[in-house]
Amino acid sequence: MMHVDGPGDRYVVGVDYGTLSGRALVVRVGDGAELGTAVHEYRHGVIGSVLPGSAAPLPPDWALQDPEDYRDVLRHAVPAAVAAAGIDPARVIGIATDFTACTVLPTLADGTPLCQVPELRDRPHAWVKLWKHHAGQPQADRINALAHERGEAWIGRYGGKISAEWQFAKGLQLLDEDPEVYRRAERFVEAADWIVWQLCGVETRNICTAGYKGIRQDGRYPSRDFLSALDPDFADFVGKLDGPLLPMGARAGGLTARAAAWTGLPEGIAVAVGNVDAHVTAAAGRALPPGHLVAIMGTSTCHVVNGANLVEVPGMCGVVEGGISPGHWGYEAGQSGVGDIFGWFVSHAAPAGMDSHERLCELAAAQPIGGHGLVALDWWNGNRSLLVNHDLSGLVVGLTLATRPADVYRALLESTAYGTRMIIEAFVAAGVPIRELVVTGGLASNRLLMQIYADVTDRPLSLIASAQGPALGSAIHAAVAAGAYPDVYAASAAMGRVDRDVYRPDPDRARAYDALYAEYRSLHDHFGRGGNEVMSRLRAIRNAAVEQAATRATTPLEVVA
Ligand SMILES: Nc1ncnc2c1ncn2[C@@H]1O[C@H](COP(=O)(O)OP(=O)(O)O)[C@@H](O)[C@H]1O
Ligand SMILES: O=C(CO)[C@@H](O)[C@@H](O)COP(=O)(O)O
Prior knowledge:
Strand order of the largest sheet: 15-16-14-13-19-20-21
Strand content: 15-25%
Shape: globular
Helix content: 25-40%
Distance between the termini: 65 Å
Bound molecules: adenosine-5'-diphosphate, 5-O-phosphono-L-ribulose
Radius of gyration: 23 Å
């Protein structure tokens, strides 16, 4: 049924840029009603094996994207969402976007991505590095070692370790491996800020990515002295990052005529400062007051929670003043692989006839807790929190000839819940209270998984009452940027939607999980904290083997042989 505009209705558009697609959502300003949505899949998806138009293989752990796919979301998903909502586009007063992060690209001073500069198109380092590009682990290791050696105060704000996923590791990898592209990069910009630049024609930086994904604390980045100790040519890196820095919910500028033509929205409407898919979502779940841990559960999981005070939490991703909303200390942690692990099992391990989440869940749900005799480590995509090591890999212990596919699938679901419990316990132990979990994302619809999380964490689970939690969060920020609300707290209270305590922990099941969690912890510490470095050794062996095979493949005679 077509929506009919009320006489005073005004609307905002939220756009959520995920790993594989961008989702646009049209929302009514007064009450947060969601009126229309559309998805645009990125044409190039995740570029992990070869660059478009090239046959040369990318090394392991690379994950790139094409920025033109992001502009296509504005061209296709936004007008489609407005059409689906059946509203008059002239009544749209603002647009806001959120992005995966750290997803970052080198550009010229005017924002042109280096991968669109003809002579640089075949250079992998000229492309967007997606959040899950993990090939900068050696550079992250160097940054961390030097930070501890020099006693840099900021390292504690990142749980003691900068991730290979973050800006400085990616920037240093760029310098190490392609100094010419590093030199040509006049700007090194989060996709979250780049897309806002495309919308309003003004380059801005947001407090959230500058703090969590860059290393900006107490108003400054790491010193020139620190950066030149990493590499003298890295001393100028901050010059590529710095820009007008704006708080969450601020207006970055007005929609340009060019972006108005792409989107079909009125020229000049408010464009909100960039934001991250996880952090923006706290507003959608009315979870801005301290104590509500928001888990955005999709391919990966990101956890964000506001705190009243500053504390340092070992192994967390970071704490940033105003990083989620002005006036609070925002904390972030994460798991680099969650839905992707379940997806891997369905695609690559489950036999035909059992290769769907629905069938595996049905079989797994019938089991008593612990009945499969398995414990898994959820490190298929490395470990972001608490170990901050992307050379770690997955493990399943307890396999026997009696083990069946649904047993392993259930053990994988449980392993990710144990990973979340590790994160919650780290926050609580450090003095950041966690009263409830507020869940959103593609995995929130998996009932078995949600009940496992409630039981393993022994906490109630609330669900954001939107199929597009991040996009709703963005829409809320668009309303603030457009001046419809005085701040993000007021907008979240009016437009956010949450169903409280949808899943409650069962005391018996919670106790049964305590025993399995104790086993997870001991495996976690053994393989992740130095008991046995087998995973790192296997990674090094794999990398050497792949490199050797790639060298051989370029020798025609050997290929023929
Ligand atoms: N019913 C399900 N149960 C468990 N995992 C699922 C289910 N459906 C999809 N997945 C996994 O969830 C992920 C997609 O989550 P989604 O939130 O849609 O994406 P994104 O993280 O890109 O925003 C994929 O990794 C997929 O394998
Ligand atoms: O790390 C963050 C945010 O800090 C996420 O953008 C990243 O995990 C990607 O999230 P998705 O799995 O695409 O939802």
